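REVIEWER CHECKLIST
Item 1: Sequence provided? yes
Item 2: Single chain? yes
Item 3: Sequence as submitted:
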Amino acid sequence: MARDVRGGWALGWGMASPAASVSSGGDPVAPAADPVAIRAALTPMLVAEFDREWELVLERAKVSKDLAGIRDLLGKWRHIAYGELRDPGSYYRMLAKAEQVQRLGANPDAVSLEEMKALLRQRQGRAE
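Item 4: Structure as written out by the authors:
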């Protein structure tokens, strides 16, 4: 599958669409928990981030002789890759939102607890 360039998002960064496996229903399939499969599903910018983390975790595993960090890294990046396949740019939007919440000390788009409870009751069919 060829990579195509899509328009940038809120920060104006251009992104390339990652190569993806698609199910028979047309939905993307999560990559295997394998570094090659994960890298193939990421945009070039995310591949660079993955590679930096991969090198750090590999060095730690060499010293500790413990593979848990590698398994954790592959699980984390498999999740990120799948999210990007489903909604390109979602990872960087999440980072931008987290930065905004930290900077402001609150989420300006958040609803109150009471509003959330009312929405849940409504969805459960128990409007009060």
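Item 5: Key structural point noted by reviewer: The chain has one domain: 5-123.
Item 6: Recommendation: ____
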